[in-house]
Amino acid sequence: MWCQRLAWLLRGWRGSTGHRWPWLSRDPGPVLAAPARCRPTAPASPCCAWQLHQDHLELRYRSTVMRLDFVWLRDHCRSASCYNTKTNQRSLDTASVDLAIRPQAVRVDETTLFLTWPDGHVTRYGLEWLARNSYEGQKQQVMHPRILWNAEIYRQAQVPSIDCRSFLETNEGLKEFLQSFLLYGIAFVENVTPTKEDTKILAERISIIRETIYGRMWYFTSDFSRGDTAYTKLALDRHTDTTYFQEPCGIQVFHCLKHEGTGGRTLLVDGFHAAEQVLRQAPEHFELLAKVPLKHEYVENVGGCHNHMIGVGPVLNVYPWNNELYLIRYNNYDRAVFNTVPHDVVRRWYHAHRALTTELRRPDNELWVKLKPGKALFVDNWRVLHGREAFTGYRQLCGCYLTRDDVLNTARLLGLQA
């Protein structure tokens, strides 16, 4: 998977300062001989071995070497007194755990780690659970499996649209839709009645609608009713929406209700595919785009609409433990004054931004689709950039923003990794 390649490249790359990313190294500390009472009571399993250090337990299970802090091990105890299995919530008061705690006894069998603490409390961990949930285990895993695409890859995949009735009335149709959406960042529903009301029903099938300064459901025409270039007939370059929110909207829904004219095709670009190309060609550019915070701003004074929104964050956002890219914030229209870095970083950032822009604008990365009445488009606004060619005549769209948490929640309840 590309995320694993990403992590490998970043772990191996050294920047101009000669330092690796700080979270990728960890000093295990001095090794201490285990006291007699902490030695295994039975021969160690061939697939498992352990050793006590000053402040953590080093545990090798199969191919994973885990370094587990003693406080972490006490804090995550799943015994009845420490964890409520009915509510799936922690009962233990973490602040009551001695930060210098050490186990009095350690035992490991084929499947389980047993720890006895100074007060006599016993913690049991399944080795599989530890391998999945340790730092070392997590950095090997992908949070959100994806298929990166350019226009040709997406067309060859022949990703099916989902019929509206199947989407609304069956879990199978909903699951197929969500699987496509999670993998590609876009998905289509066909045979939707071209009204705002029916589009609202569609959206609420997978999420709560996120209310913003634009309302809940909105109509979208070229009447310049809002202070935004989108409310014109002009072409729009590729971008993600609401970069000026502290948390940009997760999913956007588009449904063309009417178009009496020419042009107006929708442009879609997989931002994660473009970012991977930057990582391959110039990892120092990727690192800079992932570390430098930017301000995006929306200032509006049109009619009764008065808004001044500011969002701050880097262009590329990655999970620090596995370097998996999870959000791209790219909108040249709304980027505010660039004043968040010292002068010696500015030019390097512009070079990095140019490298990403070049990839985003490659013609083979552009997927053009004509939105027509009855065909609704769902876009992952944290991943896929959208744009529009100029158009003539009267064109009306409706749509909304969805809360990302609710969409992912729906997917998980259907058994998908999200």
Would you write up a description of this structure?
The chain is an alpha+beta fold and 418 residues long. The chain folds into two domains: 48-139, NE0471 N-terminal domain-like (2-Layer Sandwich); 151-414, Double-stranded beta-helix (4-Layer Sandwich). 27% of the residues lie in helices and 27% in strands. It has twelve helices and 23 strands. It has helices at residues 2-12, 70-75, 127-133, 135-138, 151-157, 164-169, 171-184, 196-204, 271-281, 283-291, 343-360, 404-413, and strands at residues 48-52, 56-61, 64-69, 83-84, 89-90, 105-108, 112-116, 122-126, 162-163, 186-190, 209-210, 218-220, 236-239, 251-260, 266-270, 294-302, 305-313, 316-318, 325-328, 367-369, 376-380, 384-388, 394-402. Strands 9, 10, 11, 12, 14, 21 and 23 form a seven-stranded mixed sheet that branches. A four-stranded antiparallel sheet has the order 13-22-15-20. A three-stranded antiparallel sheet has the order 1-2-3. α9 packs across α10. The two termini are 16 Å apart. It is an enzyme of class 1 (oxidoreductase). Residues 161-401 form the TauD/TfdA-like domain.
Write a compact overview of the structure shown.
Its EC number is 1.14.11.8. This protein has helices at 2-12, 70-75, 127-133, 135-138, 151-157, 164-169, 171-184, 196-204, 271-281, 283-291, 343-360, 404-413; strands spanning 48-52, 56-61, 64-69, 83-84, 89-90, 105-108, 112-116, 122-126, 162-163, 186-190, 209-210, 218-220, 236-239, 251-260, 266-270, 294-302, 305-313, 316-318, 325-328, 367-369, 376-380, 384-388, 394-402.
